[in-house]
Amino acid sequence: MFKDLVVIISIILSISFIIILLYNNRLKNKLLNIIFMLLAISFMISILVLDNSYVYDLLRSFITYFWYPNYLIFVTTILISVIIFLITLLKKKVKLKNKIKNYLLFAISFSVYIIYLRQEIDTTLYQALYSNNSLILMRIETITFTVWVLATIIFRILDRGKKK
Fold first, then answer.
1. Which of 143, 129, 76, 137 shows the shortest CA–CA distance to 111?
2. Which of 27, 68, 89, 164 is the most exposed place for a label (fewest CB within 10 A)?
3. Average pLDDT for runs of 10 along the chain of length 164
4. CA–CA separation, 145 vs 86, rounded Å?
5. Are the CB atoms for 115 and 91 separated by under 8 Å?
């Protein structure tokens, strides 16, 4: 592995990038930050363009995640929504749009989970776990959580754009 010149150069390049970025924390050079941002974006684009198996597996995983949600992920997203709800209630300064978004996430997640529990679905049986009713409820929660994550990301990007 370390006999390959490209591997050695990439390790040295990565270490030098870290040193430059750490040193740039003191200098706060915006041009250097922009250069590294462009480098990171070009690296991401090259991964998406050149690594076809990654892109295929990623798309397949997304489709599987939405079409056949996992019970563990289903319950985890509900727990995350409860935690987000509690944090929203405890924080004093939360923007109204974030409150509304977080309250909606909690309300939908709570309702879906109560409906799920009322269905008396045996989670140990594959047929029961992926029956129509169970699958529809897990899909609703999965899509709701995904929309919430996307909305959170979009709002943060927009808020950063307004600050600048």
1. 137
2. 164
3. 73 82 75 80 82 83 79 89 93 87 93 89 73 84 92 89 72
4. 16
5. no
